[in-house]
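Why does residue order matter? Because the sequence determines the fold. Keep that principle in mind as you read this record.
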Amino acid sequence: MIGGLAMTAIGPLSGVAGAQDARPMVLFLGDQESEQSKLWRTQWEPLFLASQAYKKVDYRVVYPATNALLLKPESWPADLRWILDAFLLSQVGVQAGHVTPRFFLVQNKQITFSTSGNSGWRETMWPTIMDVTGTTN
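Structure:
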């Protein structure tokens, strides 16, 4: 299944997250050339930012100029590169790493869920975030 993926951080990478606290983290990965990423940023991101769930998570964005820069370590903040490393070691990362938009849910310094596409956000990631945060919107 390429659209949705449950995965955990691999080996020692799980401990590299740094100073992340107990709050879940949602990471949006997209690129400025992707029409689907632009759609998410204009349609879904504002709804997410206005939600009660947003107030209960740390939200981070990796949004390089081009798709070619998407999986380059230099495009990622240093404290998030462990997510890139773990993703690139996964089957989905190898097969569909450049598919955007992509979303990661990180809990307790582990990637607990990842999905891609606007439908992946709407049908799986958003309900998962609401469940994790105990919110209804």
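The first helix runs from residue 35 to 49.
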